[in-house]
Amino acid sequence: MVRKTKEEAQLTRQQIIDAAREVFLKRGVTSTTLQDIAKQAGVTRGAVYWHFSNKHDLFHAMRDQVFLPLIDRMDNTLLVEEMHDPLATIEQFLCGTIQMLEENPAIRQTYEIMMVKCEYVDEFADVLQQILTNCSDIVTNLELAYKRAKEQGQLHPAHDPIAVAMDTHLFFVGLLHMWVKDIQGIRFRHQAIDLIKSHIKLRHAKP
Question: Could you say which of 1.10.357.10, 3.10.180.10, 3.30.1490.100, 1.10.287.950 is the CATH number of the domain covering 76-201?
Answer without folding.
Answer: 1.10.357.10
